[in-house]
Specification:
Number of strands of chain A: 10
Number of helices of chain B: 10
Strand order of the largest sheet of chain A: 2-1-3-10-4
Oligomer: heterodimer
Structural class of chain B: mainly alpha
Helix content of chain A: 25-40%
Structural class of chain A: alpha/beta
Number of strands of chain B: 0
Order of helices and strands of chain B: HHHHHHHHHH
Order of helices and strands of chain A: HEHEHEHEEHEHEHEHEEHH
Amino acid sequence: MAHKHNMLTVALLAVMAMVVTPVLAQEKTPNDPRLFTPGKLTVSTSEPSYPPWVLDNNPEAGEGFEAALVYALAAELGFKKEDVVWVDVTFDGAIAPGPKAYDFSIQQISVTPDRAKVATFSDVYYQSDKAVIALPASTVASAKSFAELKAAKWGVAVGTTDFDYVTNVLGVADAAVFDDQAGVFQALQGGQIDATVAALPTALYATCCQVPEAKITAILPKDPKDEGLGLLFAYENPIVPWINEGLAALKSKGTIDELAKKYLIADPSIPEITQ
Amino acid sequence: MTRRPGKGRRQIALKDRLAPVLISLVSVVVVFGAIAWFVGSAEQWPRIQNQFFSIDAMLEAAPGVARGFLVSLQIWLISLVCIGIWALVLAIFRAMGGPWFAPLRVFAIVYVDLFRGLPALLLVLLFGFGIPALNLPGLPKEGLFWGGVALILSYSAYATEVYRSGIEAVHEGQGMAAKALGLTQWQTLRYAILPQALRNVVPAMLNLVVALQKDVALLSVLGVRDAVREAQIYTARTFNYSSLVVAAILFLLATIPLARLTDHLARRDRQRRLQGAK
């Protein structure tokens, strides 16, 4: 009798395995049914997106730190290059609650404990220094301490951790807050603000090509509350652990460091202000 | 005719009075209850509630948003005074008769065509970023100042037309009568036309006043930290939208009393005018 019972259990298990395994077997493969479009890796970024994160506003080319990172990650997870689909999303669209028409968004979004309460991030893929951008003639250019920096008129873009940096780390209470980085640079050129901070790679591109008359006058220490850049998912998206495995593999292989070296190199001659 | 309500008649009156009130109450409860049930039944509702209507987040965001709201109020009040005066000047230009005043009339017409035809946001951007970038010595550079100027110029165009409609609504006979009394053109305008015209336009003007209060938020593109911008800052920091609800409540607290005031003034004005025709 016991024997027959065992047989039944085995048969039942076999049936269950036949039904369940194909689904389980597909998880963590490009055909994972939990993907937005199984078979494709759907990634969103901002339009326009700027160098050095995405070159030529064309992520499909895979040039620029974030574009190249996505293709490296896709390859690591088993996707073919043509299976990566890009869609546009604004920062506001990416952070809004609700379901998303893509798997994750990549657009230099910083992971912070406050944000992590209501949004789901991947592990951090890059943490950059903050750089001070100012016109060479301004008092900020010769500042040596936070106290001297604080005296200047600051401007930042809304939605950035640059705002938190200026407010919390530098202690500036009245920083002007613009819609986007373009507004900040416009105000800098018009003399409405003296300086702004930005992630070092963004600052390097800005001072070479967007506002060539401005320069990076100093590097600032990292904000301990800003954990670095992460991929942003719809809340509690179940594929996050899988994506994190891919990121971890890229990190241990040194791929992320290589990409950072290729696209995000800093000029070592910029002075640092630490207090 | 005096009314002598009998007993039966009063009962009917009571029922007639109560029935509409009851029907209104029940229908309001049913309609809004159904909407609330429908929204609340959404699977995502608890998350949305947490992200849009979190009391903790509202309290945390309130001081910043309130500070921004004070900035909005200041810009609003100062702009109102400037618009009220500048638009009246333009309307008077427009109302001046006679060939010598033709340049003033043309100026007023072109001004209104130009500034009413351009989006306020465009003007704010042009003035706020454009003029400081010229680096002209002696001119202020603050985005707040130039954005305010843009708003004043834009809204003055609308307000001028409101004034004009008020002036044109004053019966022609008033002007003729003033002329017959030997008043000059200016005196006619000052003592006969404008006092009546201004009273005519109060409700329409208050409409603009409410609209302007919300358009002050446009200045945020120039870095001005008004209520909406402060709310956005909080949202960007925490990805929680409750701060926007706080800003919405503050705006409503300011504009709803204004709307009631508009109604009240309009009603009082109508009653006063009807008294003459009793």
